[in-house]
Amino acid sequence: MTATETPGTLLRILDYSSRADPYPLYAELRETPVALQEDGSYVISTYRELMDILHNPHLSSDVRHLSRPMEAAEGRGTPAFINLDPPEHDRLRRMAMRHFGPPHTPGLVAGLEPDLTATVGSLIDDFAGKEQIDIVDDFAYPFPVTVICHLLGVPREDEPRFHLWVNAVIESIDYNPKTDPKEKLENGRQATNELRAYLRGLVEERHSRPSDDLLSRLANDDGPDGRMTDEEIVATANLLLIAGHETTVNLITNGMLTLLRHPQMLQRLRDEPDLIVPLVEELLRYEPPVHIIPWRAAYSDVAVADTVIPKGSRIILMLASGSRDPNRFHDPDRFDPDRPDNQHLGFGSGIHLCFGGPLARRETQIALTELVRRLDRPGLVTDPPPYRRSPVLRGPIHLPVEQGAG
Amino acid sequence: MTSADNLRAFKRDGRIVVVGASLAGLRAAEALRGEGFTGSLTMIGDEPSEPYDRPPLSKQVLTGWVPADGTLLPRRRDIDAEWLLGVPAGGLDMRANQVRLADGREVPFDRVLIATGVRARPWFVESEADLDGVFVLRTREHAEGLQRALAAGPSRVLIIGAGFTGSEIASICRERGIAVTVAELAPAPLVGALGAMVGDVAADMQRAHGVDLRCGVKVTRLEGDAQGRFRRAHFDDGSAIDADVAVVALGGIRNTEWLRGSGLAAGVWGIACDTGCRALTLDGLITDDVFAAGDVARCPNPIYEYRLISLEHWANAVEQAEVAAHNMVSGQADRWPHLSLPVFWSIQFGVNIKTVGVPTFADEVVVTQGSVADRRFVAAYGYRGRVTAAVSFNNAKWLDHYRQLIETAAPFPPPFPAPDQPADMKPVPVDFPGPTLLAQGATVVVTGHDPGERRVTSAQQHR
After folding, report:
1. CB B416 to CB A58 under 8 A?
2. Which of the 8 DSSP states describes residue B74?
3. Among B287, B289, B307, which Cα is nearest to B298's?
4. Which CATH superfamily is domain A7-402 in?
5. Which CATH class is domain B3-117+255-328?
6. Is B203 exposed, middle or buried (0-12, 13-18, 19+ CB in 10 A)?
7. CB neighbours (10 Å) of residue B60?
8. What is the DSSP string of B330-376?
9. In 3D, which of B174, B246, B176 has the Cα closest to residue B208?
10. Other CB atoms closer than 10 Å to residue A149's CB: what's the count?
11. Which residue has the higher pLDDT, A368 or B305?
């Protein structure tokens, strides 16, 4: 193992200067599929090893199984199912899924389609008369936020409040004690507490005045597993709000950026709207919103490829690198919606496979189809656009686009 | 001409015949075209319709969610084939390279793929099998008839045999509120495929859903009324039950009778092949132009000591079809072996059951994750200290890991603890019923003295 070179690669990936194009660094990382870092953590960057580890029952999502505690995870209250192992994970995810997808709620995403189309339409209507629009602020951000607020039953007018909290939480997810001020961590913690207190208030309201939204159903409906406690509901809602808030914004924005960089593909999508289904799958491989699972814990010794990762180690999963692994995908740096057998890692894999995946897919399909149909000769204003800080949830912070660009 | 020239000419102008127009046959035909085969392609099938999918027949079709004719297999590409449907094959002449159809027509080939599958094992007394209300379930027509019978609201359904198909049908009867009795010769359902430990779980599951499950009993007689309608079944313990519908779910019979006299190693056990799906002759020699895929093929699996294994699994049919098709149009050096591990799934009583590997190749079994009481667990199977298979109940997302354990001959029981592991992770004997097939007597005899004369001949009539 070339443990002397690889730590440098990860640090360079985390460095903001490589945000616009981390892919050459991922290629460097893949030279050592399981790379031990100076701090004792292991980075996994190749497709097959990532698939193996994501299906490995000896991998834990529970921070309590790390031998070195993680500062960023401390003091955040009841964990959501994303940070739990079976059987607790299975129970909470199953209880949440009861109200979100098949078999009990099979038509949820399909039933939202008229709303999704209407929301997208009205946002694009507002572009009228503007020469330049920001795909993020004017479209990709407000759209999924409106959807997740509606679904959960969070008042849309509270968005300015929780927007700040969510931003602070996201900021602190990839906290690095070496480079980041302690203040960033503290802001994240405080924001988590405030966001949870806010959600707790909504859950209490739903107990007395239920309506048709997800919070009401979680608060009042009994299934075979019984009912979640209020703290479990708050943790679940917190997770869904943040995930529903952040990732789809990046997927839509990365999608538009990719199309603008591939004008022939943009034209093709305009001519063949059905292309959107494989195109969004290819986006999830080529420019996914989630690049890194920043930590998992080795519950016991975990064998990956030829390496045994000792119990208690932190494991960092470079999903976006795996989806560009040339040993799995032919010509991986090419954007190719016609790609066969596109089993990307865009939504992860295994028991933590993205809960909101079906919704995110449909949102992005509708958003990009309508943008491409209705924008008049869109052109990129700056390439690359400015990016957000996070290397974990990666996407442009603004994507200025001009219309009638010729 | 070099062999490369020959191969090119064959890919361009050759004649390939596929016998069997179901999943394996169709996928092979598509793969042949995908591999660039542009010669003539003939599809022979005994059923009148185009290839359809069978797993939904014992599930969505019986519930009435999907009509029986709504299960056509999706086409992945145009195969530009000549279809000879509604007529079974009657013989294979390996000297003249011809398939003879039951109606006497002869179809010449350069290479042939045999994918004739299995048919349902009928009730052993013909007059009883013919009673109105007695069903088997293999084809679309069977499913259509049984679905109609269930929709008519029978007072009770008797299911004979608690393997996967029988158990799935029992589950659907309960889902539709129909009283159901399941009769099984073994001590528990699914025991022949998954062993006694999992069989006990399956038995609890059936009883918890109100199935009248009777194990260790044999149905001896199906009794009809004056109108020829099934009314009552008698058991070997002297008891009897009244029912309107009987479903005979006693597994399948491989469709190999038509190969009698062909010289292929074909019989009740299937068609013996190499891992490249090339058929063996009775003498155990590899043929070069005859291939087999799907339920009827019996291939060696290196992971299981090269034993010849035939599987009635959907994914196995697809994978063998693709390997066979590739090898049919490839030279010696470019051939692929079919080495993937079998994967099988079933849905019954609200539980998704999935297996990887060959659970019958085991001496011990251990629950490695989850809880048997909750019917949400993974159990690993081991043979002489290595992992050979796994089964999951409502926990299928972990099975990829067990596939890897099997492929790398990982130690059994798996040594490392995982979250959600039962406290006393103790292996128990796997306990399968005896190898009943071995009791059927010899199937071949060897004749001749000198190496040049020694030959194998078939010793047993097909049943």
Report:
1. yes
2. P
3. B307
4. Cytochrome P450 (1.10.630.10)
5. alpha beta
6. buried
7. 17
8. S-GGG-----PPPEEEEEETTEEEEEEE-TTS-SEEEEEEEETTTTE
9. B174
10. 20
11. A368
**Do residues B163 and B190 touch, judged by C-beta distance below 8 A?**
yes
pLDDT for the residue B463: 43
pLDDT at B439: 40
DSSP state, residue B56: G
Asked if A55's CB is within 8 angstroms of B398's CB, the reply is: yes
Distance CA B455, CA B460 (A): 16
In the structure, how many helices (H) and strands (E) does chain B have? 9, 31
- Sorted by sequence, the CB contacts under 8 Å of residue B362 that are 6+ apart come out as B195, B381, B382, B383, B388, B389, B430
Beta-strand runs (E) in B285-325: 286-292, 297-301, 307-309
Q: B3-117+255-328 with B120-252: one CATH topology?
A: yes
The residues in B 378-437 lying below 8 A from A, measured between CB atoms, are: 378, 397-401, 404, 416-420
Task: Name residues whose C-beta falls within 8 Å of residue A250's C-beta, 6 or more positions apart in sequence.
Answer: A140, A289, A393, A394, A395, A396
CA distance A276 to B220: 59
**Residues in contact with B182: Cβ distance below 8 Å, sequence separation at least 6, in sequence order:** B158, B159, B162, B166, B167, B170, B189, B206, B211, B212, B213, B214
- Interchain pair B419, A60: CB under 8 A: yes
The CATH H-level superfamily of B350-429 is FAD/NAD-linked reductase, C-terminal dimerisation domain (3.30.390.30)
According to the model, what pLDDT value does residue A78 have?
85
Which pair of structure tokens corresponds to residue B245? 């519908």
The DSSP symbol for B285 reads P
Q: Which of these, A254, A79, A229, A237, lies nearest to A165 by C-alpha position? A: A237
How distant, in Å, are the alpha carbons of B279, B298, B379 from that of B330? 16, 21, 40
Domain ranges of chain B: 3-117+255-328, 120-252, 350-429
CB contact under 8 A, B419 and A301: no
**Is the per-residue pLDDT at A1 higher than 50?**
no
Is the CB of A86 less than 8 angstroms away from the CB of B419? yes
pLDDT in tens, B167-199: 999 999 999 999 999 999 999 999 999 999 999
Task: Report cis status (omega within 30 of 0) of the bond before A385.
Answer: no
Q: What is the pLDDT of residue B442?
A: 62
Size of interface A-B (CB pairs under 8 A): 52
Domain extents in chain A: 7-402
- pLDDT band of A77, cuts 50, 70, 90: confident
Phi, psi of B147 (to 5 degrees): -60, -40
Closest CA to B360 of B331, B393, B382, B336: B382
The pLDDT-based confidence of B424 (bands split at 50, 70, 90) is confident
Q: What fold, for B120-252?
A: FAD/NAD(P)-binding domain (3.50.50)
Residue A290 in contact with residue A346, Cβ under 8 Å? yes
pTM metric for this prediction: 0.91
Instruction: State ipTM.
Output: 0.88
In this predicted model, what pLDDT tens digit does every residue of B75-120 receive, in sequence order?
Answer: 999 999 999 999 999 999 999 999 999 999 999 999 999 999 999 9
Average pLDDT, stretch A196-220?
94
Residues of A within 8 A of B375 (CB-CB) are: none
